[in-house]
Write a structure and sequence with these properties.
Elements (H helix, E strand, L loop, with lengths): L1 E6 L3 H9 L7 E5 L5 H6 L1 H18 L15 H25 L3 E4 L1 E6 L2 E5 L5 E11 L3 E3 L12 E2 L1 H4 L8 E5 L3 H12 L3 E6 L10 H13 L3 E4 L7 E3 L2 E6 L2 E5 L1 E4 L3 E3 L32 E3 L11 H17 L12 E3 L4 E6 L2 H6 L4 E7 L4 H6 L5 E7 L4 E8 L2 H13 L4 H5 L10 H10 L6
Parallel strand pairs: 1-2, 1-6, 2-3, 6-17, 8-15, 9-10, 9-15, 10-11
Antiparallel strand pairs: 4-5, 5-6, 7-16, 12-13, 13-14, 18-19, 19-22, 20-21, 21-22
Helix pairs in contact: 1-8, 3-4, 3-6
The protein binds 1,4-dihydronicotinamide adenine dinucleotide.
Protein backbone atom coordinates (compact mmCIF):
# COMPACT_ATOMS: atom_id res chain seq x y z
CA UNK A 1 0.00 0.00 0.00
CA UNK A 2 1.52 3.30 -1.13
CA UNK A 3 0.80 6.64 0.47
CA UNK A 4 0.09 8.14 -2.95
CA UNK A 5 -0.68 6.74 -6.41
CA UNK A 6 -0.18 9.40 -9.06
CA UNK A 7 -1.80 8.91 -12.46
CA UNK A 8 0.17 10.79 -15.11
CA UNK A 9 3.87 11.66 -15.24
CA UNK A 10 3.74 15.23 -16.56
CA UNK A 11 4.59 18.39 -14.54
CA UNK A 12 1.59 17.88 -12.21
CA UNK A 13 2.28 14.19 -11.68
CA UNK A 14 6.06 14.12 -11.52
CA UNK A 15 6.14 17.20 -9.27
CA UNK A 16 3.69 15.45 -6.91
CA UNK A 17 5.92 12.36 -6.86
CA UNK A 18 9.09 14.39 -6.27
CA UNK A 19 7.62 16.66 -3.60
CA UNK A 20 6.28 13.70 -1.58
CA UNK A 21 9.92 12.91 -0.77
CA UNK A 22 9.98 15.93 1.58
CA UNK A 23 7.53 14.11 3.85
CA UNK A 24 8.90 10.59 3.46
CA UNK A 25 5.76 9.43 1.64
CA UNK A 26 5.85 6.38 -0.64
CA UNK A 27 4.70 7.02 -4.21
CA UNK A 28 3.73 4.99 -7.27
CA UNK A 29 3.84 7.11 -10.43
CA UNK A 30 1.81 5.56 -13.24
CA UNK A 31 2.67 6.77 -16.74
CA UNK A 32 1.73 5.26 -20.10
CA UNK A 33 4.53 6.99 -22.04
CA UNK A 34 7.88 8.28 -20.82
CA UNK A 35 7.86 10.68 -17.87
CA UNK A 36 7.77 14.39 -18.71
CA UNK A 37 4.25 14.94 -20.04
CA UNK A 38 3.23 17.56 -22.57
CA UNK A 39 5.65 20.16 -21.22
CA UNK A 40 8.79 18.10 -21.54
CA UNK A 41 7.89 15.83 -24.48
CA UNK A 42 5.51 17.83 -26.68
CA UNK A 43 5.28 21.38 -25.33
CA UNK A 44 7.24 23.97 -23.42
CA UNK A 45 10.69 22.45 -23.67
CA UNK A 46 10.89 21.33 -27.33
CA UNK A 47 9.03 24.47 -28.45
CA UNK A 48 11.38 26.78 -26.58
CA UNK A 49 14.42 24.87 -27.85
CA UNK A 50 13.30 25.54 -31.44
CA UNK A 51 12.41 29.14 -30.63
CA UNK A 52 15.93 29.59 -29.26
CA UNK A 53 17.37 28.39 -32.57
CA UNK A 54 15.17 30.95 -34.31
CA UNK A 55 16.50 33.69 -31.99
CA UNK A 56 20.09 32.76 -32.71
CA UNK A 57 19.37 32.81 -36.47
CA UNK A 58 17.75 36.23 -36.14
CA UNK A 59 20.69 37.52 -34.09
CA UNK A 60 23.20 36.33 -36.69
CA UNK A 61 21.13 37.84 -39.49
CA UNK A 62 21.28 41.23 -37.81
CA UNK A 63 24.88 40.89 -36.59
CA UNK A 64 26.30 43.34 -39.14
CA UNK A 65 24.52 46.22 -37.32
CA UNK A 66 26.75 45.40 -34.36
CA UNK A 67 29.92 45.32 -36.43
CA UNK A 68 30.01 41.55 -36.77
CA UNK A 69 30.28 40.37 -40.33
CA UNK A 70 29.19 36.87 -41.25
CA UNK A 71 28.62 35.14 -44.54
CA UNK A 72 24.94 34.81 -45.43
CA UNK A 73 23.57 32.61 -42.58
CA UNK A 74 21.29 29.70 -43.34
CA UNK A 75 18.87 27.99 -40.99
CA UNK A 76 19.58 24.26 -40.87
CA UNK A 77 16.18 22.92 -39.84
CA UNK A 78 17.31 19.29 -39.20
CA UNK A 79 20.15 20.51 -36.96
CA UNK A 80 17.77 22.70 -34.94
CA UNK A 81 15.41 19.70 -34.63
CA UNK A 82 18.23 17.44 -33.55
CA UNK A 83 19.32 19.94 -30.92
CA UNK A 84 15.72 20.21 -29.70
CA UNK A 85 15.54 16.42 -29.36
CA UNK A 86 18.83 16.36 -27.43
CA UNK A 87 17.56 19.01 -25.03
CA UNK A 88 14.38 16.97 -24.43
CA UNK A 89 16.25 13.67 -24.03
CA UNK A 90 18.68 15.23 -21.54
CA UNK A 91 15.85 16.55 -19.40
CA UNK A 92 13.77 13.35 -19.60
CA UNK A 93 16.78 11.26 -18.56
CA UNK A 94 17.55 13.71 -15.76
CA UNK A 95 13.96 13.54 -14.53
CA UNK A 96 13.91 9.72 -14.63
CA UNK A 97 17.13 9.75 -12.60
CA UNK A 98 15.79 12.14 -9.95
CA UNK A 99 12.57 10.11 -9.60
CA UNK A 100 14.66 7.01 -9.01
CA UNK A 101 16.93 8.71 -6.48
CA UNK A 102 13.89 9.95 -4.60
CA UNK A 103 12.57 6.39 -4.34
CA UNK A 104 9.53 6.96 -6.56
CA UNK A 105 8.29 3.74 -8.14
CA UNK A 106 7.49 4.55 -11.76
CA UNK A 107 5.05 2.05 -13.25
CA UNK A 108 4.69 1.97 -17.02
CA UNK A 109 1.10 1.57 -18.16
CA UNK A 110 -2.31 3.21 -18.43
CA UNK A 111 -3.86 3.98 -15.05
CA UNK A 112 -7.59 4.00 -14.42
CA UNK A 113 -9.41 4.23 -11.14
CA UNK A 114 -10.91 0.99 -9.84
CA UNK A 115 -12.33 2.44 -6.62
CA UNK A 116 -11.25 4.43 -3.57
CA UNK A 117 -7.51 3.85 -3.15
CA UNK A 118 -7.32 1.47 -6.11
CA UNK A 119 -5.82 2.03 -9.55
CA UNK A 120 -5.77 -0.56 -12.32
CA UNK A 121 -2.73 -0.34 -14.58
CA UNK A 122 -2.99 -1.75 -18.11
CA UNK A 123 0.45 -2.51 -19.47
CA UNK A 124 1.59 -2.38 -23.11
CA UNK A 125 1.32 -6.18 -23.45
CA UNK A 126 -2.34 -6.03 -22.36
CA UNK A 127 -1.73 -7.44 -18.87
CA UNK A 128 -3.08 -5.56 -15.87
CA UNK A 129 -1.93 -4.98 -12.32
CA UNK A 130 -3.45 -3.23 -9.34
CA UNK A 131 -1.91 -0.43 -7.29
CA UNK A 132 -3.28 0.35 -3.84
CA UNK A 133 -2.72 3.70 -2.18
CA UNK A 134 -4.16 5.81 0.62
CA UNK A 135 -4.52 8.76 -1.78
CA UNK A 136 -4.76 9.17 -5.54
CA UNK A 137 -3.56 12.25 -7.42
CA UNK A 138 -5.03 12.50 -10.92
CA UNK A 139 -2.68 14.37 -13.24
CA UNK A 140 -3.58 13.11 -16.70
CA UNK A 141 -3.08 16.41 -18.53
CA UNK A 142 -4.53 17.64 -21.80
CA UNK A 143 -4.42 17.11 -25.56
CA UNK A 144 -4.80 19.59 -28.43
CA UNK A 145 -8.38 20.51 -29.38
CA UNK A 146 -9.54 21.03 -32.93
CA UNK A 147 -12.38 22.74 -34.78
CA UNK A 148 -14.91 21.28 -37.25
CA UNK A 149 -13.35 20.52 -40.63
CA UNK A 150 -9.83 20.68 -39.24
CA UNK A 151 -9.39 17.19 -37.82
CA UNK A 152 -5.63 16.65 -37.65
CA UNK A 153 -4.37 14.13 -40.22
CA UNK A 154 -0.72 14.28 -39.17
CA UNK A 155 0.43 15.77 -42.49
CA UNK A 156 -1.48 18.67 -43.99
CA UNK A 157 -3.52 19.50 -40.88
CA UNK A 158 -1.57 19.15 -37.67
CA UNK A 159 -1.43 20.22 -34.03
CA UNK A 160 1.61 21.34 -32.07
CA UNK A 161 2.33 17.65 -31.32
CA UNK A 162 3.26 16.98 -34.97
CA UNK A 163 4.65 20.47 -35.67
CA UNK A 164 7.36 19.88 -33.08
CA UNK A 165 8.50 16.87 -35.13
CA UNK A 166 8.40 18.41 -38.64
CA UNK A 167 11.35 16.98 -40.57
CA UNK A 168 11.61 19.93 -42.94
CA UNK A 169 10.75 23.58 -42.65
CA UNK A 170 7.24 24.23 -43.94
CA UNK A 171 7.39 26.96 -46.59
CA UNK A 172 3.76 28.12 -46.30
CA UNK A 173 1.84 27.69 -43.04
CA UNK A 174 -1.63 28.70 -41.85
CA UNK A 175 -1.98 28.82 -38.08
CA UNK A 176 -5.52 28.72 -36.70
CA UNK A 177 -5.65 30.47 -33.32
CA UNK A 178 -3.39 33.35 -32.24
CA UNK A 179 -3.26 32.29 -28.59
CA UNK A 180 -0.05 31.30 -26.90
CA UNK A 181 0.85 28.35 -29.14
CA UNK A 182 -0.22 30.08 -32.34
CA UNK A 183 1.82 33.21 -31.62
CA UNK A 184 4.93 31.29 -30.53
CA UNK A 185 4.90 29.21 -33.72
CA UNK A 186 4.13 32.25 -35.88
CA UNK A 187 7.07 34.13 -34.38
CA UNK A 188 9.50 31.23 -34.75
CA UNK A 189 8.44 30.22 -38.27
CA UNK A 190 8.56 33.81 -39.52
CA UNK A 191 12.02 34.23 -37.95
CA UNK A 192 13.29 31.23 -39.92
CA UNK A 193 11.71 32.36 -43.19
CA UNK A 194 8.39 30.53 -43.56
CA UNK A 195 5.38 32.34 -45.04
CA UNK A 196 2.94 32.52 -42.12
CA UNK A 197 -0.80 33.24 -42.09
CA UNK A 198 -2.17 33.63 -38.58
CA UNK A 199 -5.95 33.42 -38.06
CA UNK A 200 -7.72 34.51 -34.89
CA UNK A 201 -11.47 34.84 -34.28
CA UNK A 202 -10.95 37.51 -31.64
CA UNK A 203 -9.71 40.92 -32.69
CA UNK A 204 -6.26 40.85 -31.12
CA UNK A 205 -3.26 38.57 -30.72
CA UNK A 206 -3.28 36.52 -27.48
CA UNK A 207 -6.84 37.44 -26.46
CA UNK A 208 -6.85 38.28 -22.76
CA UNK A 209 -3.49 40.03 -22.97
CA UNK A 210 -3.38 43.81 -22.32
CA UNK A 211 -4.35 45.43 -25.66
CA UNK A 212 -1.27 47.71 -25.50
CA UNK A 213 1.03 44.70 -25.26
CA UNK A 214 -0.85 42.91 -28.03
CA UNK A 215 -0.34 46.00 -30.24
CA UNK A 216 3.43 45.93 -29.63
CA UNK A 217 3.47 42.24 -30.55
CA UNK A 218 1.38 42.94 -33.68
CA UNK A 219 3.89 45.60 -34.73
CA UNK A 220 6.76 43.11 -34.31
CA UNK A 221 4.82 40.46 -36.26
CA UNK A 222 4.14 42.94 -39.06
CA UNK A 223 7.89 43.59 -39.30
CA UNK A 224 8.46 39.84 -39.54
CA UNK A 225 5.86 39.73 -42.35
CA UNK A 226 3.42 37.51 -40.47
CA UNK A 227 0.08 37.81 -42.30
CA UNK A 228 -2.37 38.45 -39.47
CA UNK A 229 -6.07 37.80 -40.04
CA UNK A 230 -7.72 38.98 -36.84
CA UNK A 231 -11.44 38.90 -36.09
CA UNK A 232 -12.10 36.36 -38.84
CA UNK A 233 -13.24 32.77 -38.81
CA UNK A 234 -11.98 30.20 -41.28
CA UNK A 235 -14.17 28.00 -43.48
CA UNK A 236 -13.68 24.30 -44.16
CA UNK A 237 -10.30 23.64 -45.79
CA UNK A 238 -9.86 22.04 -49.21
CA UNK A 239 -6.91 19.80 -49.90
CA UNK A 240 -5.68 20.36 -53.48
CA UNK A 241 -2.56 19.39 -55.47
CA UNK A 242 -1.07 22.80 -54.67
CA UNK A 243 -1.69 22.52 -50.91
CA UNK A 244 -4.45 23.24 -48.43
CA UNK A 245 -6.83 26.05 -49.32
CA UNK A 246 -8.03 27.87 -46.20
CA UNK A 247 -11.05 30.09 -46.92
CA UNK A 248 -11.84 33.17 -44.82
CA UNK A 249 -14.34 35.95 -45.56
CA UNK A 250 -14.38 36.34 -49.37
CA UNK A 251 -10.76 35.35 -49.61
CA UNK A 252 -8.54 32.30 -49.17
CA UNK A 253 -4.88 31.34 -48.77
CA UNK A 254 -3.13 28.22 -50.02
CA UNK A 255 -0.53 26.71 -47.73
CA UNK A 256 1.49 23.51 -47.36
CA UNK A 257 0.26 22.83 -43.87
CA UNK A 258 -2.30 24.06 -41.34
CA UNK A 259 -1.38 24.16 -37.67
CA UNK A 260 -4.45 24.09 -35.45
CA UNK A 261 -3.81 25.88 -32.13
CA UNK A 262 -7.25 26.53 -30.68
CA UNK A 263 -6.74 25.36 -27.12
CA UNK A 264 -6.30 22.08 -25.26
CA UNK A 265 -8.85 19.67 -23.79
CA UNK A 266 -8.51 17.71 -20.54
CA UNK A 267 -7.84 13.97 -20.72
CA UNK A 268 -10.17 12.53 -18.11
CA UNK A 269 -12.75 10.55 -20.06
CA UNK A 270 -11.02 7.15 -19.97
CA UNK A 271 -9.77 6.99 -16.39
CA UNK A 272 -13.04 5.84 -14.82
CA UNK A 273 -13.65 8.72 -12.42
CA UNK A 274 -17.16 7.32 -11.94
CA UNK A 275 -15.65 4.63 -9.73
CA UNK A 276 -15.06 7.31 -7.08
CA UNK A 277 -18.02 9.53 -8.01
CA UNK A 278 -15.87 12.46 -9.15
CA UNK A 279 -17.90 14.48 -11.67
CA UNK A 280 -16.41 16.32 -14.64
CA UNK A 281 -17.63 19.32 -16.60
CA UNK A 282 -16.53 19.11 -20.25
CA UNK A 283 -13.73 16.92 -18.92
CA UNK A 284 -12.53 19.35 -16.24
CA UNK A 285 -12.50 18.38 -12.55
CA UNK A 286 -13.54 20.83 -9.84
CA UNK A 287 -11.38 20.87 -6.74
CA UNK A 288 -11.14 22.66 -3.43
CA UNK A 289 -8.62 25.31 -4.53
CA UNK A 290 -6.92 25.34 -1.11
CA UNK A 291 -6.05 21.64 -1.13
CA UNK A 292 -6.65 20.37 -4.71
CA UNK A 293 -8.90 17.66 -3.27
CA UNK A 294 -11.88 16.69 -5.42
CA UNK A 295 -15.35 16.06 -4.03
CA UNK A 296 -14.13 12.55 -3.07
CA UNK A 297 -11.94 12.11 0.02
CA UNK A 298 -8.39 11.12 -0.85
CA UNK A 299 -8.77 11.87 -4.59
CA UNK A 300 -6.88 14.94 -5.76
CA UNK A 301 -6.53 16.55 -9.19
CA UNK A 302 -3.71 18.81 -10.43
CA UNK A 303 -2.58 20.39 -13.70
CA UNK A 304 -4.41 20.92 -17.00
CA UNK A 305 -7.49 18.90 -15.94
CA UNK A 306 -8.41 21.27 -13.08
CA UNK A 307 -11.47 23.42 -13.79
CA UNK A 308 -10.95 27.17 -14.09
CA UNK A 309 -7.18 27.39 -13.66
CA UNK A 310 -4.54 28.16 -16.32
CA UNK A 311 -3.07 25.19 -18.23
CA UNK A 312 0.56 25.92 -17.43
CA UNK A 313 3.39 23.68 -16.23
CA UNK A 314 4.33 26.05 -13.41
CA UNK A 315 0.72 26.10 -12.20
CA UNK A 316 0.75 22.29 -12.21
CA UNK A 317 3.97 22.32 -10.10
CA UNK A 318 2.34 24.61 -7.54
CA UNK A 319 -0.87 22.56 -7.48
CA UNK A 320 1.19 19.41 -6.91
CA UNK A 321 2.82 21.05 -3.90
CA UNK A 322 -0.62 22.03 -2.55
CA UNK A 323 -2.02 18.49 -2.99
CA UNK A 324 0.97 16.71 -1.46
CA UNK A 325 1.19 19.17 1.44
CA UNK A 326 -2.45 18.50 2.25
CA UNK A 327 -2.01 14.74 2.02
CA UNK A 328 1.11 14.80 4.20
CA UNK A 329 0.18 17.38 6.82
CA UNK A 330 -3.48 18.29 6.49
CA UNK A 331 -2.29 21.89 6.03
CA UNK A 332 -3.12 24.17 3.10
CA UNK A 333 -0.47 25.40 0.68
CA UNK A 334 -2.94 27.06 -1.66
CA UNK A 335 -1.75 28.40 -5.01
CA UNK A 336 -2.02 32.18 -5.35
CA UNK A 337 -3.83 32.23 -8.69
CA UNK A 338 -3.75 36.05 -8.62
CA UNK A 339 0.00 36.18 -9.10
CA UNK A 340 0.78 33.62 -11.78
CA UNK A 341 3.36 34.79 -14.29
CA UNK A 342 2.36 34.16 -17.90
CA UNK A 343 4.99 34.22 -20.62
CA UNK A 344 4.61 33.99 -24.38
CA UNK A 345 7.99 33.09 -25.85
CA UNK A 346 7.63 35.09 -29.03
CA UNK A 347 10.38 37.36 -30.29
CA UNK A 348 9.97 39.83 -28.57
CA UNK A 349 8.74 38.04 -25.46
CA UNK A 350 5.45 38.98 -23.83
CA UNK A 351 4.72 38.43 -20.14
CA UNK A 352 2.10 39.44 -17.64
CA UNK A 353 0.97 38.84 -14.10
CA UNK A 354 -2.14 39.59 -12.09
CA UNK A 355 -5.06 41.54 -13.47
CA UNK A 356 -5.19 43.39 -16.74
CA UNK A 357 -6.76 46.86 -16.66
CA UNK A 358 -10.12 45.56 -17.92
CA UNK A 359 -10.10 42.62 -15.49
CA UNK A 360 -9.40 44.96 -12.58
CA UNK A 361 -12.28 47.22 -13.63
CA UNK A 362 -14.56 44.19 -14.03
CA UNK A 363 -13.55 43.13 -10.49
CA UNK A 364 -14.81 46.51 -9.21
CA UNK A 365 -11.49 48.33 -8.72
CA UNK A 366 -11.00 51.99 -9.54
CA UNK A 367 -7.70 51.83 -11.34
CA UNK A 368 -4.99 53.97 -12.78
CA UNK A 369 -2.47 52.67 -15.30
CA UNK A 370 1.10 53.70 -16.00
CA UNK A 371 3.22 52.81 -18.99
CA UNK A 372 6.82 53.21 -20.00
CA UNK A 373 8.21 52.41 -23.44
CA UNK A 374 11.71 51.09 -24.06
CA UNK A 375 12.67 53.67 -26.67
CA UNK A 376 14.65 55.73 -24.18
CA UNK A 377 16.02 52.83 -22.13
CA UNK A 378 19.80 52.70 -22.58
CA UNK A 379 20.21 48.93 -22.46
CA UNK A 380 17.33 48.42 -24.94
CA UNK A 381 19.03 50.84 -27.34
CA UNK A 382 22.34 49.00 -26.86
CA UNK A 383 20.64 45.69 -27.67
CA UNK A 384 18.84 47.21 -30.64
CA UNK A 385 15.44 46.24 -29.23
CA UNK A 386 13.50 49.35 -28.36
CA UNK A 387 9.99 48.21 -29.34
CA UNK A 388 8.99 47.04 -25.85
CA UNK A 389 6.76 48.46 -23.19
CA UNK A 390 5.81 48.05 -19.51
CA UNK A 391 2.32 48.66 -18.15
CA UNK A 392 1.35 48.59 -14.49
CA UNK A 393 -2.26 48.50 -13.24
CA UNK A 394 -2.71 50.08 -9.80
CA UNK A 395 -5.75 50.38 -7.55
CA UNK A 396 -6.35 54.11 -7.00
CA UNK A 397 -4.57 54.92 -3.75
CA UNK A 398 -3.82 51.24 -3.28
CA UNK A 399 -1.89 48.18 -4.34
CA UNK A 400 -0.34 47.03 -7.61
CA UNK A 401 -2.92 44.74 -9.22
CA UNK A 402 -1.20 43.62 -12.37
CA UNK A 403 1.47 44.32 -14.93
CA UNK A 404 2.59 43.38 -18.42
CA UNK A 405 5.94 43.59 -20.16
CA UNK A 406 6.84 43.22 -23.83
CA UNK A 407 10.48 43.21 -24.83
CA UNK A 408 13.74 41.33 -24.56
CA UNK A 409 13.82 39.16 -21.45
CA UNK A 410 10.19 39.96 -20.54
CA UNK A 411 9.77 36.37 -19.35
CA UNK A 412 12.49 36.90 -16.78
CA UNK A 413 11.60 40.48 -15.81
CA UNK A 414 7.97 39.62 -15.04
CA UNK A 415 9.07 37.93 -11.83
CA UNK A 416 9.88 41.16 -10.00
CA UNK A 417 6.35 42.30 -10.82
CA UNK A 418 5.04 38.90 -9.70
CA UNK A 419 6.35 39.58 -6.19
CA UNK A 420 4.85 43.06 -6.17
CA UNK A 421 1.44 41.73 -7.21
CA UNK A 422 1.70 38.71 -4.89
CA UNK A 423 2.72 40.80 -1.89
CA UNK A 424 0.06 43.41 -2.75
CA UNK A 425 2.78 46.05 -2.73
CA UNK A 426 2.05 49.76 -2.89
CA UNK A 427 3.69 51.67 -5.77
CA UNK A 428 5.49 54.04 -3.38
CA UNK A 429 7.08 51.11 -1.52
CA UNK A 430 8.13 49.43 -4.76
CA UNK A 431 9.45 52.69 -6.23
CA UNK A 432 11.80 53.17 -3.28
CA UNK A 433 14.09 50.45 -4.64
CA UNK A 434 16.56 51.15 -7.42
CA UNK A 435 17.29 49.23 -10.59
CA UNK A 436 20.79 48.69 -11.90
CA UNK A 437 21.82 50.89 -14.82
CA UNK A 438 21.90 50.12 -17.68
CA UNK A 439 19.33 47.32 -17.65
CA UNK A 440 16.06 46.69 -19.45
CA UNK A 441 14.46 46.34 -16.00
CA UNK A 442 14.88 50.10 -15.56
CA UNK A 443 11.72 50.40 -17.66
CA UNK A 444 9.92 48.70 -14.75
CA UNK A 445 11.61 51.04 -12.24
CA UNK A 446 10.49 54.06 -14.24
CA UNK A 447 6.90 52.76 -14.46
CA UNK A 448 6.80 52.15 -10.71
CA UNK A 449 8.16 55.63 -10.06
CA UNK A 450 5.42 57.12 -12.24
CA UNK A 451 2.87 54.93 -10.43
CA UNK A 452 4.07 56.48 -7.17
CA UNK A 453 3.27 59.93 -8.57
CA UNK A 454 6.79 60.99 -9.57
CA UNK A 455 8.96 60.42 -12.60
CA UNK A 456 12.62 60.64 -13.45
CA UNK A 457 13.40 60.30 -17.16
P1 LIG B 1 -5.14 29.41 -26.26
O1 LIG B 1 -6.40 29.24 -25.53
O2 LIG B 1 -4.02 30.20 -25.70
O3 LIG B 1 -5.46 30.06 -27.70
C1 LIG B 1 -6.36 29.53 -28.60
C2 LIG B 1 -6.78 30.65 -29.53
O4 LIG B 1 -7.52 30.12 -30.61
C3 LIG B 1 -7.66 31.69 -28.86
O5 LIG B 1 -7.08 32.95 -29.07
C4 LIG B 1 -8.99 31.54 -29.57
O6 LIG B 1 -9.69 32.74 -29.69
C5 LIG B 1 -8.55 31.03 -30.92
N1 LIG B 1 -9.55 30.29 -31.68
C6 LIG B 1 -10.42 29.37 -31.20
N2 LIG B 1 -11.18 28.89 -32.22
C7 LIG B 1 -10.75 29.52 -33.35
C8 LIG B 1 -11.14 29.46 -34.73
N3 LIG B 1 -12.10 28.64 -35.14
N4 LIG B 1 -10.49 30.25 -35.60
C9 LIG B 1 -9.51 31.08 -35.19
N5 LIG B 1 -9.13 31.20 -33.91
C10 LIG B 1 -9.73 30.41 -33.00
O7 LIG B 1 -4.69 27.92 -26.64
P2 LIG B 1 -3.34 27.39 -27.29
O8 LIG B 1 -2.56 28.49 -27.88
O9 LIG B 1 -3.76 26.26 -28.16
O10 LIG B 1 -2.56 26.86 -26.04
C11 LIG B 1 -3.12 25.79 -25.25
C12 LIG B 1 -2.70 25.90 -23.81
O11 LIG B 1 -1.34 25.65 -23.69
C13 LIG B 1 -2.98 27.27 -23.24
O12 LIG B 1 -3.75 27.14 -22.09
C14 LIG B 1 -1.65 27.83 -22.94
O13 LIG B 1 -1.65 28.53 -21.71
C15 LIG B 1 -0.74 26.61 -22.86
N6 LIG B 1 0.58 26.97 -23.38
C16 LIG B 1 1.34 27.83 -22.68
C17 LIG B 1 2.55 28.26 -23.17
C18 LIG B 1 3.34 29.24 -22.40
O14 LIG B 1 3.07 29.44 -21.23
N7 LIG B 1 4.30 29.91 -23.01
C19 LIG B 1 3.06 27.78 -24.45
C20 LIG B 1 2.15 26.94 -25.12
C21 LIG B 1 0.96 26.55 -24.59
Amino acid sequence: MYDIAVIGGGPGGYASALYAHNFGLSVALIEKDRVGGTCLLRGCIPAKALIESGHVFHTVQTASEFGVTTSDPTFEWPVAMERKTKVVEGLVNGLSGVLKTRGVETINGFGSIAGPGKVTVTHDDGSTSEVEARNIIVATGSAPSSIPGYDPNGETIVTSDEALEWETKPERVAIIGAGVIGCEFASFLADVGSEVHLFEVQDQLVPGLEPEAAKVLSRAFRRKKVNMHLGVGVGAPEITDDGVVVPFGDDSVTVDVVLVAVGRKPMTDTINLDAVDVPTDRGYISVDRATMQTSADGIYAVGDIVAGTPQLAHVAFAEAIAAVTHIATGENAAVDYNAIPMVVYTNPEVAWVGRTESQAVADGYEVEVHEHGMRGVGRAIIQGETGGTVKVVVEQGGQILGASVVGPGAGEMIHELMYLVGFEALPEDAAAFIHAHPTISEAIGETLLTSAGRSLH
